[in-house]
Amino acid sequence: VVTKTDLKVKPLSEVITVNGEASQVKLLEQFGGKWDSFKFAPIRESQVSRAMTRRYFSDLDKYAESDIVIIGAGSCGLSTAYVLGKARPDLKIAIIEANVSPGGGAWLGGQLFSAMILRKPADAFLNDLGVPFEEDPANPSFVVVKHAALLTSTLLSRVLSFPNIKLFNATSVEDLITRPAATGNPQDTRIAGVVTNWTLVTLHHDDQSCMDPNTINAPVVISTTGHDGPFGAFSAKRLVSMAAVEKLGGMRGLDMNSAEDAIVKNTREVTKGLIIGGMELSEIDGSNRMGPTFGAMVLSGVKAAEEALKVFDE
Ligand code: AHZ
User: Fold this and answer.
1) Cβ(289) – ligand 1 distance below 6 Å
2) Does the annotation place 76 within a ligand binding site?
3) How far apart are CA 279 and CA 272, in angstroms?
4) pTM beyond 0.95, yes or no
5) 227 alpha carbon to ligand 1 midpoint, in Å?
6) Which residues get modified to 2,3-didehydroalanine (Cys) (predicted)?
7) 97 labeled part of a ligand binding site
8) What does the pLDDT profile of the chain (314 residues) look like in tens digits?
9) Which of 33, 67, 97, 248 is deepest in the core (most CB within 10 A)?
10) Which atom of ligand 1 is the closest one to the Cα of 254?
């Protein structure tokens, strides 16, 4: 812990240990002990506004026609984006996340606990991503990441670094864009994109007059909005209300063994143009929940990416 007194009597470089990080040492060489003459480069406020808004609106313009839209940036949606970003740098991929903070339920391992459990063979995903984990000698069937936030923050930073992926957070998918089937059968309806709005607007449709949404067209939409709840299972429920799916299976009780296998194996194109993965799928299929084990979420992301790539590899 660095105290004010320490800083007065010693140069920063002597007080802070930096675990041998060269870049940090250089920062200390650059700034350490020179705070009296410290000054940021000058700025005008409007430059900040323009730098942000120009980029945001240019992204809205660019991604209005996307190749893939991922709904939800939880553990499944982010894993899907990671695999797609690595496999196909040529595709334009938009992620729409209702929350300000992406990550869904993956900032904790479960309840209020920090460690995250992933059943094997999901350790292969961690190795690919470069996230360290421990083996648990008493429990050889799973591995442990010391803090769920380590997995989530690493996934996020990798996903956000891909130049072909744009995350629109604080933005909700309010509806799906549809194209009628030649058969006239609603179950053959094709999904052709998403209807979006800023989440704060979405939350106020009941007490404000009409605030029309925005749209993104895409030949492939991947929905990973989690199980039912205030925000969850969005596309699953919408498919039922538009008669593209007859009725929801409804998520069943907790059974780790059957739940994780089922979610990974059944991650698929549920309706033409719409792949569903992660816990949202349990609402379609009536499969069990698994509780706080995340192997199925990351591997459902791998399967969702594989399903999506079939469309572009054809
Ligand atoms: O904010 C939601 C969350 O970040 C987002 N989302 C939901 N509806 C949306 C909408 N538009 C945009 N209409 C939306 N975003 O989707 C994300 C879902 O993340 P999640 O962590 O809830 O779902 P997941 O399937 O990736 O992971 C599930 C983790 C669970 S739940 C569970 C159990 O209950 O047994 N076990 C596990 C491992």
Assistant:
1) yes
2) yes
3) 20
4) no
5) 6
6) 210
7) yes
8) 445 555 454 555 554 555 555 666 788 888 989 999 999 999 999 999 999 999 999 999 999 999 999 999 999 999 999 999 999 999 999 999 999 999 999 999 998 999 999 999 999 999 999 999 999 999 999 999 999 999 999 999 999 999 999 999 999 999 999 999 999 999 999 999 999 999 999 999 999 988 889 999 999 999 999 999 877 999 999 999 999 999 999 999 999 999 999 999 999 999 999 999 999 999 999 999 999 999 999 999 999 999 999 999 87
9) 97
10) 35
**Cα(111) to centroid(ligand 1), Å:** 15
Flag whether 173 is marked binding.
Answer: yes
**Do the domain assignments include residue 235?**
yes
- Ligand 1 in reach of 213 Cβ (< 6 A): no
Ligand 1 touching residue 169 (CB < 6 A): no
How many A from CA of 104 to the centre of ligand 1? Answer: 5
287 Cβ closer than 6 Å to some ligand 1 atom? no
Q: Does residue 31 form part of some domain? A: no
Does any domain span residue 137? yes
Token pair for residue 131?
């996230």
Q: Which atom of ligand 1 is nearest to the CA of 224?
A: 25
Q: Tell me the two tokens of residue 185.
A: 């059968």
- The tokens for 271 are 């309706």
Give the domain range for residue 101. 66-313
CATH number of the domain bearing residue 132: 3.50.50.60
Residue 278 CA to ligand 1 centre (angstroms): 8
CB of 148 shorter than 6 A to ligand 1: no
Phi, psi at 175, each rounded to 5°? -165, 170
* Overall domain count for the chain: 1
